Amino acid sequence: MNREDLANLIFPSITKTIEDYEKEYPPRNLPENAKVTRFAPSPTGFMHIGHFMPALIDYVLAHQSKGVFYLRNEDTDQTREVEGAVEYIRTVLATYGLNPDEYEYKDLKETKGEYGPYIQSERKEIYHAFIKHLIIEGKAYPCFLTQEEMDAIREAQSKDKRRIGIYGRYAKYRDLPVEEAIKRIESGEKFTIRLKSTGDFNHKFKFNDLAFGELEFPENDIDIPIMKSSNGLPTYHFAHLVDDHLMRTTHVVRGQEWISSIPVHYELFKAFDFKMPKYIHIPLILKKDGEKIRKISKRYDPEAKMSFYEEKGYPTYAVIEAIMTIANSNYETWREGHPDAPFTDFEFSPKKMSASGALFDLDKLDNISKNYLSHLTKEQIYKEVLNWSSKYDLEFNEILKKYPDYSMAIYNIEREQKKPRKDYSYYSEIKDKTWYMYDEYFYDINYDFKEYNLEEVKKVLKTYLDNDYFNESDTQEEWFNKIKEMTTNLGYASEVKMYKEDPTKYKGSIIDITNIMRISLTTLDNTPNLYNIMLILGKDRITERFNRILN
Ligand code: GLU
Fold first, then answer.
1. In angstroms, what CA-CA distances link 493 with 221, 427, 507?
2. Which atom of ligand 1 is found nearest the CA of 41?
3. Which of 47, 272, 368, 394 is most solvent-facing, going by the fewest CB within 10 Å?
4. Cβ of residue 254 lying under 6 Å from some atom of ligand 1
5. Residue 16, number of CB atoms within 10 A of its CB
6. Atom 10 in ligand 1: which residue has the minimum CA distance?
7. What gap in Å lies between CA 404 and CA 288, rounded to an integer?
């Protein structure tokens, strides 16, 4: 009996060979230097920024080289699978316009691309053919170590401060005679398939990562499991190798946490004599926490989850810009020179990533976003906030639908000018900053008139109403002149300068008068242009709001 018999016993129905699959999935017919990238998430439930950044870079690299960006569902660890995870990932990608060129969406019964299946659990046969090949070649073997035995090995290793894993003398079954292995399998004994490592831990090799540069590692000597018996699916390490080979991936973009797996991946590719794709490991995403700079945490930092941006209503443009800015050190300068170009025009260079980590800063995002939103038209803002609120704030959504022109007039305050107002960073903030304009929210109000006593406040408001000062057709200048007139009549200085020159002569200045009016109309002492606000509120609302305080 030989290794072929052993391989046939383990995989009796596998008849296709690696060559068959290579013919079935031939090298792609793409322009020279076109990059084939993949986003390969495990469907574990949510998407964090550490997934998003590689996906964005995958997209950029493929698009600017006329290559292919595909989505692969890495569901080999089915115990961790969360229902709906892939659908969620799909929507996030779509929201940001990062739609893959090739994919398989089971729920939609939709597939695109010639290199699938794009779901690992549907590729079992392919993996088995590759494993079978390794067994025949003597590069993989069935291992009969039980869980208890492995636990004991691990315990002993950690007690003796040795490296953890099945290697050297711990790899008890690597040289088991074929006949014996066959006998055990035939008697129903459980087994794992392990790589028969040929590496020497004391021997180092060099590996060139496109972002981190030249790295040096000790060779892998661990007989890593490539297939666990439980479901016949391979481990991530093995599956990614087969898939990236057959799907003709040219560039693997993935998180820094995978760097430590390079020795294993290097050995696996060598075992098949396959050319490795190029690797771009993405540095950690960091955040400032007080004085400290630390890794962003998917558990503790809300901004680590992509849902945070959606829920708050950040424009997708701003999120992409913020991430591109930390991905490449020269992005910001490029953007200044190309304010209207799509981000995909930027030539992304893995070398320009900072290996020490990418500092992600919400203030920076807010700035980008404020600037972006300040340049939209009132119609665009209205459309976006309507869309956002239809998912996250139905009450506000109803109000917006009821008052489209009124809402747009609010968004237009100090917008159509050379330096537009930068009020909003995200769509949920629009309600926080405009609520007082809507009667629906303007009830049960507690006014805080600060240093102004209520009698004085009432006097100001009454004078304004009694003189019928408000007129919708007044220009800003006419409006202001009336306020000035009232200011003087009430014993206040109509110019701040006058008041400062001799404060004893006046009760206060025009600032106090406009502040009193502002607080009465909005509850706030800081708002956009009061004239615009009053014009939009209109005479009836102004009268009603002043009367509330007077009565
Ligand atoms: N499934 C792996 C993950 O979600 C992918 C790593 C890779 O891109 O190779 O982290």
1. 86, 40, 8
2. 4
3. 394
4. yes
5. 14
6. 41
7. 40
pLDDT in tens, 413-466: 999 999 999 999 999 999 999 999 999 999 999 999 989 999 999 999 999 999
| DSSP reduced 3-state for 148 | helix
The 3-state DSSP composition of the chain as helix, strand, coil percent (nearest 5) reads 50, 10, 35
How many Å lie between the centroid of ligand 1 and the Cα of residue 446? 53
Q: What is the pLDDT of residue 110?
A: 95
Kindly list the structural domains of the chain, giving each domain's residue range(s) and its CATH number in brackets, ordered by start.
3-12+124-282 (3.40.50.620), 288-373 (1.10.1160.10), 375-437 (no CATH), 454-550 (1.10.10.350)
37-91 pLDDT, tens digit each: 999 999 987 889 999 999 999 999 999 999 999 999 999 888 888 888 999 999 9
Residue with CA at minimum distance from ligand 1 atom 3: 41
- The residues with which 543 forms a beta bridge, in sequence order, are none
Contacts of 365 (CB under 8 A, 6+ apart): 314, 318, 319, 322, 425
- Find out whether the beta carbon of 261 lies less than 6 Å from any atom of ligand 1: no
What's the confidence (pLDDT) of residue 59?
97
Ligand 1 pocket mutation, candidates 258, 280, 284, 298, criterion most atoms within 8 A of CB: 258
Sheet arrangement for strand 225-227: 140-143, 192-195, 225-227
Please answer whether residues 60 and 295 qualify as being in contact, where contact means their C-beta atoms are separated by less than 8 angstroms: no
240 lines ligand 1 (CB under 6 A): yes
In angstroms, the Cα distances linking 414 to 374, 419, 532, 535 are 9, 8, 9, 13
Ligand 1 pocket member 38 (CB < 6 A):
no
Q: Does ligand 1 lie within 6 Å of residue 126's CB atom?
A: no
DSSP state of 94: H
pLDDT at 229 over 80: no
What are the C-alpha distances in Å from 539 to residues 308, 413, 444, 472, 514?
40, 18, 21, 7, 17
Q: Is 74 in the pocket of ligand 1 (CB under 6 A)?
A: yes
Burial zone of 451 (CB within 10 Å; 0-12 exposed, 13-18 middle, 19+ buried): exposed
The answer, yes or no, to whether any atom of ligand 1 lies below 6 A from the CB of 371, is no
Q: Say what angle helices 476-489 and 510-522 make with each other, to 10 degrees.
A: 110
CA–centroid distance, 257 to ligand 1, in Å, is 10
Burial class (CB in 10 A: 0-12, 13-18, 19+), 471: exposed
